[in-house]
Design a protein that fits this description.
4-stranded mixed β-sheet; 25 helices; single chain
Length: 682
């Protein structure tokens, strides 16, 4: 295609292609994470929107959540496709805005929209349910700004009816984004600046300019003022600490401290946005091309860099002046970029937050991405010597940003893989649970699914047909909830309880199952359902050993063929060591020894072996209960050789078996072999 020219009509396709490269390659391997679970659960459980804690100060948010859950259901791919489409539409509308403001800067506008889509300050696109609302807010704001610009320009062309209709539609979109989330509220103050730039192109005197700015801005200003009065005066008692305007309280207490706090946050956030967000792109692991994801990412980056460089080198500019030659437009770009960045970050500062502190606080960078992209592209066109040099430099930088997004998506892919393995193991070992059962765990399900998201996931796993605001089960991480500090109280009948948003759960400590999850660095270890016998288990922490007596396997409902919703959790995994171990453990609980031995033989036929001696316990017990004492001894020695720390638990199991009124000579002989080989003590 030697004569191909990239024209304005091709830019939407270019933006969509960039979105697909950055976010679409692994889209069918992703799942749900963090607050995704909360939104899915509450939107299913609430009888009316007002039941959800966000409703008093984010009513549109709640309505959209409920509507979208009804439409899309619980299939992860649906949500990730929706997220990609919303992200693309935001980039498209942003590009349309830039084209309306600076029509002669076509190539800069296209680059700015591309960078806006993949800028690496925000890398959690894969949390599609929760962050869909953030980017829906962004889309509504951008649509409202675009309609305002179209309305003003139509008015200037004497199309006043059309202009008024566009402006009022833009006001409706502004209402939507404000009552959806507060993130873009600060950018409402960008409107007077945009209006002034537009009106100055037809008016030369400041007095009529100011009058028209006020007239056009008035309906938007009225909505914004109403919004802030509503938030400050009508709903403050309903707003939790994470969403309260804490800066206003600080201003009343100490204006100087408030000013210093804002300055400090601004310095940190600007450093993070313009420098820190690029730092992780240069991860040394990226150069290890022996890793499949690194090789794949490297190939995608090469395709992106080469493709963008080639396309933009053939950008048809309709005879426009050289980039950077229009000084007035350049000044406008810098002013708008700076204002958009500061105003985009202002709501976070108003909430007493900043971009870099919390693990997920990069979401506060989303409103600033528009201004950051404008400034970033303007800077590179300003410092470049030639147009071609700038194009290829930006092509390389954007490809690196795409690579960063792809690598982060791969992290989410593996996180969902871990979640899926754990959920299916839990279901296999615990087909269902009695209502009112607390699930006590030693750690988070995964890197991106911690205590309360896991609690919502557990309620989908067990009893998904009876979702309510009084959940049947709740998940507790013993360290996060400090339950290990209450061990004696819980063993004496104390209550386990939680009050989280509008969720309430109470259960006696004895109505629990205690599970041990593998560490993130031990992906092959299985999920373990603990029993009171695990007080001897040296492979778990002292706190878990102390809580093991709370675990009551009798609360497991085994007489059910129900599967967890495969729409959410996917299809059962292929047979492997852990799935056989969970089936065997459940069969052992039911004293179905023939089934346990059958699972063992199937597993051996597949040449599967475990990584932990603990996981041989159901097979050892089954062979013992079937009087195959030598096989039980051999497996015990094999387990102890595999994991030396499993010896106390193996010995405790041998001593705990119920063998009737009189121990048989065969058992005593076998047990003596175990004592000598493993080192059991009475």
């Amino acid at each position: 295609m030697p004569d191909f020219k990239l024209k304005r009509r091709h830019v939407p396709w270019l933006l969509f292609g960039v979105c697909l490269l950055a976010y679409g390659v692994l889209i069918n391997t992703l799942g749900f994470y963090w607050d995704d679970w909360e939104i899915l659960y509450l939107s299913s459980a609430a009888r009316r929107p007002a039941d959800i804690f966000l409703f008093p100060f984010r009513p549109v948010h709640v309505w959209l959540d409920i509507l979208t859950v009804d439409l899309l259901g619980f299939r992860p791919l649906n949500w990730h496709i929706l997220m990609l489409v919303i992200r693309f539409l935001g980039g498209l509308v942003f590009w349309r805005i830039l084209e309306r403001l600076w029509p002669k800067r076509e190539i800069e506008n296209a680059w700015t929209a591309v960078l806006f889509l993949v800028y690496p300050a925000f890398i959690h696109q894969s949390m599609a349910v929760v962050y869909r609302q953030h980017f829906t807010t962004a889309l509504l704001y951008l649509v409202s700004l675009w309609l305002m610009i179209l309305g003003v320009q139509s008015w200037q062309q004497a199309k006043r009816g059309k202009g008024a209709a566009l402006i009022m539609t833009g006001v409706a979109a502004a209402c939507g984004h404000l009552f959806l989330m507060e993130y873009f509220a600060g950018l409402e103050l960008l409107r007077p600046l945009i209006l002034a730039l537009l009106i100055l192109r037809t008016e030369k005197h400041w007095k009529p300019v100011l009058g028209k700015v006020v007239a056009f801005w008035l309906p938007y200003a009225a909505v914004t003022v109403y919004y802030f009065l509503w938030r400050l005066l009508l709903v403050p008692g309903e707003v939790d600490d994470l969403h309260a305007f804490v800066l206003l309280d600080l201003l009343r207490e100490s204006p100087l401290r408030a000013i210093l706090a804002v300055v400090q946050s601004a310095l940190l956030d600007f450093t993070h946005l313009f420098l820190g967000s690029w730092y992780q792109i240069f991860d040394p692991q990226f150069t290890d091309l022996s890793m499949p994801v690194s090789l794949m990412t490297f190939v995608l980056m090469a395709v992106a860099a080469g493709g963008l460089g080639w396309l933009f080198s053939r950008f048809h500019t309709n005879g426009n002046i050289d980039p950077g030659a229009d000084r007035r437009a350049t000044r406008e770009v810098v002013i708008v970029g700076l204002a958009a960045t500061v105003l985009g970050l202002a709501p976070a500062w108003l909430l007493g937050r900043d971009v870099f502190t919390g693990r997920y606080d990069t979401r506060f960078s989303i409103p600033a991405l528009m201004g950051v992209a404008i400034l970033f592209v303007a800077f590179f066109f300003f410092i470049s010597g030639t147009r071609q040099r700038t194009i290829w430099l930006l092509a390389v930088l954007v490809s690196m940003a795409i690579g960063r997004q792809v690598r982060m998506t791969n992290d989410f892919r593996w996180d969902w893989e871990r979640q899926s393995r754990i959920y299916w193991q839990l279901h296999t070992r615990i087909p269902d649970l009695e209502p009112g059962t607390a699930i006590l765990a030693n750690r988070s399900v995964s890197n991106f699914t911690t205590t309360y998201p896991a609690a919502y996931a557990a309620n989908f796993l067990y009893g998904s047909d009876a979702i309510s605001l009084r959940p049947a089960h709740w998940w507790f991480e013993i360290y996060d909830s400090r339950l290990f500090d209450r061990t004696d109280e819980l063993l004496s009948g104390g209550l386990i309880r939680t009050r989280f948003h509008m969720i309430e759960f109470d259960a006696p400590g004895s109505d629990s199952v205690v599970i041990s999850l593998p560490a993130l660095t031990e992906p092959t270890q299985c999920v373990w359902l603990l029993t009171p016998l695990d007080t001897a288990n040296q492979q778990i922490s002292p706190e878990m050993r102390a809580l093991a007596p709370l675990s009551d396997p009798s609360r497991i409902i085994t007489s059910t063929d129900a599967l967890p919703p495969t729409e959410i959790f996917g299809q059962p995994p292929k047979p492997g060591w852990c799935m056989y171990y969970q089936q065997a453990s459940l069969a052992a609980q039911n004293h179905d020894w023939a089934a346990v031995i059958g699972f063992y033989e199937e597993m051996i036929a597949l040449s599967n072996e475990g990584d932990s001696g603990y996981e041989y316990l159901p097979y050892i017990e089954a062979f013992a209960m079937q009087d195959d004492w030598q096989k039980a001894v051999d497996l015990t020695i094999q387990a102890e050789n595999l994991t030396k720390s499993s010896a106390p638990m193996l010995c405790a199991a041998w001593m705990d078996w119920d063998l009737g009124e009189e121990e048989s000579p065969d058992y005593l002989a076998a047990y003596q072999q175990v004592v000598e080989a493993v080192g059991c003590t009475e």
